[in-house]
Every structure is written in structure tokens, then in C-alpha cells.
Design a protein that fits this description.
The complex is a heterodimer of chains A (about 425) and B (about 100). Chain A has about 425 residues and is an alpha/beta fold. Chain A is built from ten helices and 19 strands. Chain A has two domains: about 210 residues, 3-Layer(bba) Sandwich (FAD/NAD(P)-binding domain); about 170 residues, D-Amino Acid Oxidase, subunit A, domain 2 (D-Amino Acid Oxidase, Chain A, domain 2, 2-Layer Sandwich), CATH 3.30.9. Helix content of chain B is about 10%, strand content about 35%. The chains are: A alpha/beta (about 425), B mainly beta (about 100).
């Protein structure tokens, strides 16, 4: 399925009866060269890059529900490359470059908008930390501009700069940061993978992983057994359950993260704004809704819904930062399941079982990583070697002490 | 969500701090293998269903609590003190002179 302005007009004139599905709905074959468990953003991107970069097209993506029905279908869509630690820095930088070429690569409008991300700071010490972070970003080849209070005021005149608890001292502007249309990212990768021959199999839940003599040989599913010599687990919040099918215990605890959308408003917020001290961030979608969120609910949960204390906290933080949004009505909220690691950084690695690979632990920052995660996981599954920019995302780094604790908050899963 | 503290009764979730899985109760000895520490600090069963984890009644009685609950429904099944209260010591009778 291809789209054009001409097609939209002619279909509009003739009752929209000529649209065809954007991808096939194949039945699973008995055997593939490789299987990807999980049809979310990361899984679909992995399938796309396996086909495009490595010529592996006899592969299947197995999805329990419908494509893009997990966190790629519900998130706050922030794209940024403002990481600091070696290991994270080059990975997210690579991801940003892939974002910038994504629409051309997929021939799909993902509405990627580099509207600029501003992280606010509220003390001299925090300013110093942001100077250091900005320098790390520039050294990586990305962009960062330190703004003083007046500099922030030029961009965001509507903030309450003199609030008593966290007066705004300035901000770190990341001009290439921004947002994108989350569903379109999944759909673009899905269509691209499908066009290259990848089977995207929906309503197909994996119920077991077959292992013989330390090698993976296939999976059991609700639509029958499927054989494959390579299997990739890319299931985000459900990583613990799927890995348990292979006898693994992961350094992951699944937590709930809530987010909120207001009614549609005229354009008022032109950037992505992060107010770290209040655990609050906000942007405005192209439909006009304010998209905002805060921190985890802090307890392990698969409930896909949060509790009221965090709702209250997020609203308070929003009102503290920008009282102008107080009259906007909240349209909806949701809770996503986050695969939290003890250092806040992800895992893209082999497992102790030959042919079984895992890509997980994206915490609550998986959206911006979708292209690079797919790129690196595809590289790992095709070549057996970690990709250069993801080589530190090892599964065993917790046992060996090579942690990537970007925030320096310790080894508790919910503190990242 | 409300949690019934064994000492304070039903209280709002805001009063409690979540620490993590009850794996934290099995602290390895100082001579333990590094893999035991990895198990204790990082690796988790992470069940979708019944789990037992540690909470701290931070703004209440400051007890550490072991809570068994369902991670899918948020139902709380039991709440116990990590360190059961010891019965008060009996007053000792004074020895006869």
C-alpha cells in the first residue's frame, strides 16, 4: 500500500473503498530462519533491519495481540540524544541519526518533529551537571545549548520562573530533540518489513521456547509450533515471563508509568519541556492535546493502570511549572508496563542459550531508541556479534559490575 | 490503593515506600559468590500475578512490611511485619533476701 495526495483525493471522491491493508496477514509457516517474539516498535524495527541490512527475509514476527499494541501505541513520543555515559551516548546518537533519515528510509510520514527539548535546572549544582552533560553531548557530535534564565524565557515565556520551591535558573536546549507520531513508527517499520518478505503474524502468543542441547530450535505458540535456529525476545514489560520460558531470570522488574493527554488546544507549547525536579515533562501533539507525564508509580505492577497519588503529583507539578494549563481538561490517561533494569540502561545481548537473543530493559525511554535498537539487535542476530554502539548493553554487566547508571541512583529497579 | 498495616490499620498508599521484591530478605554472607550478590541485587522473578515484596511504612509506624499482592489486579492478599514483634518481657520477680 502506497499513499499519495492524489490517492487521498480520489479515494475521498469514491467512498474510500479502494484502500488495501498496508501489510499481509500470513499464517505461520512451519519453519523460519529467525523468529522475533514481539511485534512492537523494537521488534518490527529489528525485522526491518534484518531484512534490509542483512538480507534475512525468511523471518517471522510473532505478536500476541495486534502490531504496535503495547508501549509503541501509547507513549509520550519524545525523541532525544542527550545521554552522558559512554555506552549510552554513542547509542542514542546513532538512534538520532536514524530518526533523521527514517521517513526517507521507510517512505512513511512518521511526523518526526525536531522542535527542541529543554531540560530545566533549578540550582547552581544542577547547572554544573548540565554543563557537563551538554559538553558530553557536543563531544558525541550532537547538539546542546546552555540557556540562562532569560534564554529560557525567550523560548518558554509562560513558565512560572519565580515559583518558591524550584525557581528556574536556566535550561539545557537540545535543538535536535523533539517528538514523532508513535503509531506511524510501528506502521512504517511493519510495512517496510512486510514489503521485504517478513511474515508479521498477529494473534500468535508464544507459550514455550524449545531448547535442545543448549541450542534454541523453535517456539511453541497458540498457532502451533514454529521452528527456527535464531529467536529474539523483544517483549519489553513482559520480558520476565518470556525469558522464564527459557529458564532465565532477568535483571528486570516491571513497573507502571502513567501519562496523560488533555483536550485539543490551539498551539501553546512549541517544545518538549522536562522539569526534572517536579518529575514532569510535557509537549503538545499535532492534534493539539497536551501530552504529559511524570514518574513511575514506584511499585512492581502489570496492571496497565496507575494509582491516584501519582496522578495528583503530576498535576501539581504541571501547575507549579506552568499555571496556564490549569484550565485545560484532561482527556485520558493510561499506564504502561516498563521493563526497569537496576541501572536504568537497556540490554541487547546473546543469552546462555545458543541462538537465543534478548533486547529488553528499555525502562521508560524505549521510544527514542526504536531505530537503533532494531539496527543493533538485527546486527547481533545476523552476525552473532554485538554492534559497535550497543556493545556495552550486556546482559551480564550486573554480575560483572560494568553498570551504566546514567542517573547514579543505585541498583534499585524503580529508581531510574 | 490502601494497605492495611498490622500495627496502624488501613492506610493510604502515600504513607508507604516500596523497596522491592522479598529477594532483599535473602542477603548473601560476606563470603558468598558474586553470582549470589547478582541474584540478590539485580535478578528478579518479576511475576505477572502473585508476588511478595517489601514496603516501609515511612510516615506511619516505620515498620518494614512483607506484602503479598497481585501485580495484575493490585489486590493485596496479606501484610505481615518483616520482624514479628517480640512479646513483652515478663517483669522479673525480685529474689527474696
Amino acid at each position: 500500500m502506497r499513499y499519495s495526495g492524489f490517492k487521498v483525493i480520489t479515494e475521498g471522491l469514491f467512498g474510500n473503498k479502494g484502500w488495501k491493508p498496508a501489510w499481509r496477514d500470513p499464517a505461520p509457516k512451519a519453519q523460519y530462519d529467525a523468529i522475533i517474539i514481539g511485534g512492537g516498535g523494537h521488534g518490527l524495527a529489528t525485522a526491518f533491519y534484518l531484512a534490509k541490512n542483512h538480507g534475512l527475509t525468511n523471518i517471522a514476527v510473532l505478536e500476541k495481540g495486534y502490531l504496535g499494541s503495547g508501549n509503541i501505541g501509547r507513549n509520550t513520543t519524545i525523541v532525544r540524544a542527550n545521554y552522558f555515559l559512554p555506552g549510552n551516548s554513542e547509542f542514542y546518537s546513532h538512534s538520532m541519526k536514524l530518526w533523521e533519515g527514517m521517513e526517507a528510509e521507510l517512505n512513511y510520514n512518521v511526523m518526526h518533529s525536531q522542535r527542541g527539548l529543554i531540560n530545566l535546572f533549578h540550582s547552581d549544582g544542577q547547572r554544573d551537571a548540565f554543563v557537563r552533560r551538554g559538553n558530553a553531548m557536543i563531544n558525541q557530535g550532537d547538539d546542546a545549548i546552555l540557556l540562562d534564565r532569560e534564554g529560557v524565557r525567550e523560548h518558554l515565556p509562560y513558565l512560572d520562573f519565580e515559583q518558591t520551591r524550584f525557581p528556574i535558573y536556566g535550561g539545557l536546549l537540545h535543538p535536535r530533540g523533539g517528538s514523532a507520531r508513535h503509531d506511524a513508527v510501528a506502521w512504517g517499520y511493519a510495512r517496510g518489513a512486510d514489503q521485504r518478505g517478513v511474515d508479521l503474524i498477529q494473534n500468535c502468543e508464544v507459550t514455550g521456547i524449545d531448547i535442545e542441547n543448549g541450542r534454541v530450535t523453535g517456539v511453541q505458540t497458540t498457532r502451533g509450533p514454529i521452528r527456527a535456529a535464531k529467536v529474539g525476545i523483544i517483549v519489553a514489560g513482559r520480558s520476565g515471563q518470556v525469558a522464564a520460558m527459557a529458564g532465565m531470570r532477568l535483571p528486570i522488574e516491571s513497573h507502571i508509568l502513567q501519562a496523560f493527554v488533555s483536550e485539543g488546544l490551539k498551539p501553546v507549547i512549541n517544545h518538549v519541556i522536562s522539569f526534572g525536579m517536579g518529575h514532569f515533562y510535557i509537549s503538545q501533539s499535532d492534534k493539539g492535546g497536551l501530552v504529559f507525564g511524570g514518574d513511575l508509580d514506584f511499585y512492581a505492577s502489570y496492571a496497565s493502570r496507575g494509582n491516584l497519588p501519582m496522578v495528583e503529583h503530576v498535576m501539581e507539578a504541571g501547575m507549579t511549572l506552568m499555571p496556564m494549563i490549569g484550565r485545560a481538561k484532561v482527556l485520558r490517561s493510561w499506564g504502561g508496563i516498563m521493563d526497569m533494569t537496576p541501572d536504568g540502561s537497556p540490554i541487547i545481548d546473546r543469552t546462555h542459550i545458543d541462538g537465543l537473543f534478548i533486547d529488553c530493559g528499555w525502562n521508560y525511554g524505549g521510544f527514542k531508541a526504536v531505530p537503533a535498537s532494531g539496527w543493533c539487535m538485527a546486527h547481533l542476530m545476523a552476525t552473532g556479534q554485538p554492534h559497535e554502539v550497543a556493545r556495552r548493553f550486556r546482559l551480564d554487566r550486573f554480575a560483572t559490575g560494568h553498570l551504566l547508571d546514567e542517573e547514579g541512583t543505585g541498583s534499585q529497579h524503580n529508581l531510574h | 490503593m490502601r494497605i492495611t498495616c498490622p500495627l496502624c490499620g488501613p492506610r493510604d498508599r502515600r504513607e508507604f515506600y516500596y523497596y522491592g521484591s522479598d529477594d532483599y530478605l535473602n542477603r548473601p554472607g560476606p563470603e558468598a559468590d558474586p553470582s549470589a550478590w547478582d541474584n540478590y541485587l539485580h535478578l528478579r522473578d518479576n511475576p505477572a500475578g502473585i508476588t511478595t515484596d517489601l514496603w516501609y511504612h515511612e510516615t506511619g509506624c516505620t515498620s518494614w512490611l512483607k506484602i503479598t499482592r497481585n501485580t495484575v489486579t493490585h489486590d493485596i492478599l496479606s501484610v505481615d511485619l518483616v520482624a514479628p514483634l517480640e512479646p513483652p518481657a515478663k517483669p522479673r520477680r525480685r529474689a527474696a533476701p
